[in-house]
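Reopening this ticket.

The earlier resolution said the output was attached, but the attachment link was broken on my side. Pasting everything inline this time so it's all in one place.
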Amino acid sequence: MLDSARLAIGSLAVALLCATAPAGAQEPIRIGAFVAATGPAAFLGDPEQKTLELYVERINADGGLLGRKLQLHLYDSGGDAEKARTFTRRLIEQDKVDVIVGGSTTGETMAAVPLVEKAEIPFISMAGAVVIVEPVKKWVFKTPHTDRMACEKIFTDMKARSLSKLALISGAGGFDRSMRAECLKVAPQHGIEIVADESYGAADTDMTAQLTKIRGTPGVEAVLNCGFGQGPAVVTRNYRQLGITVPLYQSHGVASGEFIKLAGEAAEGVRLPSPALLVAGILPDDDPQKPVVMAYKKAYEERYKNEVSTFGGYAYDGLMIAVDAIRRAGGTDRAKLRDEIEKTTKYVGAGGTFTMSPQDHMGLGLDAFQMLEVRNGDWVLVK
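Inline output:
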């Protein structure tokens, strides 16, 4: 394993804002994070890192929280579960953080869960799989929509298009496997019949063989790729090369402009469920999310000169839910903070309107998803 100093982004420059505080100043509020800023899941972790840095800095510039500065301790796990476990332990034992907003992927998140539960520290994940919050874990929350919700949103759209026979193709990652399992579980409830079920490995660079099998399966009316990363872009390109004409759906795991860049012209017509952030500018003016997502989009793109992504939005929501809970708790007592996160009600964020409860540690409904389609190289709302 590389020396931990080389792995860590951590105890970022944001923390320097607090380093010169005068003697007698209040202790900072310590925000812990680990993200996949590099490696195959960097398209998730890089905007998450940037978002956390940006908004910790902005909050401190506005005077901090409860008269205290925020101090960000952030590490790059590279998407590796073992590194995530190591950094979670460090955040808890060495950095003494008050809350953790982290975990770009399901694998990283689930590696951290036993540690945060044992330490009794609030943890808000930015990963998608439903297993993170079902069954409910006392100290664990999440901001992205679940894989099950993605299945249900896609199946609802299929029924509206009078489609009922679906072929699945899935990657090998934790999210991919979880979404496949959830789709298989809820398909009968929506009148969807799974007529083919193919998979590909994490290192595969050509999915032609699997898609050829799907093309030859009688009755296929649509195809759903459960996956994230570069695999879905490969599937999309191979799909078009084989001349398959039935509708292709992707997961919210590729809801960003990067997917369109990777898939190129082959992405035309692909549909997927997504938070409203990707289409912020064309939301109706009376949509309560519009001012939130437009403000986040403006701040992020002005600072980093890159397009905003839904993944950065998950970090934004995680941080802001934590900040709001700290404010309501009147401090960083972990038990009080956990309780206030669980009491989050009608928080309008980048991912939707969150209302959590002891039975629901995510707090989003299916209406938090928009159905999008790629048209002329950009995302549009499906009416």
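Reporter confirms the inline version is readable. The longest helix spans residues 42-61. Confidence is low (pLDDT under 50) at residues 1-24.
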